[in-house]
Amino acid sequence: MRRWIGIGTFVALLAAAPAASADTIDINGVKRSYTAQLPAKKPAPLVIVLHGKTQRGADMIARTAWPQVAKREGFAVVFPDGLNHAWADARTKAGPELRGPPAGTDDVAFIGKLVEKLVTDGTADAKRVYVTGVSNGGAMVMTLVCARADLFAAGASVIMNLTDEAAVTCHPSRPLPMLIMNGTADPLIPYEGGRGSSYFAADGFWSTEDTVAFWRKLNGCAAGDADVTDMPDTASADQSTVTRIRSHCPVAHDVVLYRVNNGGHRMPGFAPDARFPKIAARLLGPQNGDIDGAETIWAFFSQFR
Q: Which DSSP helix (H) or strand (E) runs through 7?
């Protein structure tokens, strides 16, 4: 099992984040931007990290441990930018109060071409490409896994559930390992489904239980929980805990849920995921500090090729 870095070491690493370079790629005549942090040794595993709505890739660089984990483990990590700070996932009703990407935006083509570029130029190992994202980025992860399973070895969606629209269009070419990480006190993406309590919440979400059951069925897993583990409550002040729920699945078809008990619309982490943590806690709910999202997801990804 991989050795987890301690909170003190993590904070120290934040000050020594490796340099990343910005670039663009043309998609149907539109310049699409992304920032890449590449290791010296290539080809390397590649993780695509998708931001949430209203964010950009820079937010994921500054507010998650992905740059530090990638530097330590020697994999490439890329932070693409959605148009209008959003992703064109499979949902058409994603919250009218917040503007989405322009009509006709093809983010499946964008991420697909980006992966293919990095594989072709020798940066990425084609057998070890992974995709993860938070919120709207998590919905885009599910859309990509459904549409381009051929590109990826595993996926991880954080603080997002399926909708009828997303599920009915999901026909992956092959089963992929999936990790889901959701909070039970999320005001935007309700754990029990329906519409969240936030003014900005959309309606029609499945419950997390139904979302996990969907991926279990696609991957040929047995129904029900196979292994339930309460993670150590190492950050008691955050008023939340984490339970890991594994499914009984065929080899390399794993489906794992990290249920963040009393967790909000936040990615768990050893450092704050927002510039103003108190405001974020009031609007989005608590952030769990018992686990780190990037560390946990990479530990999952690293098992598969």
A: helix 7-14
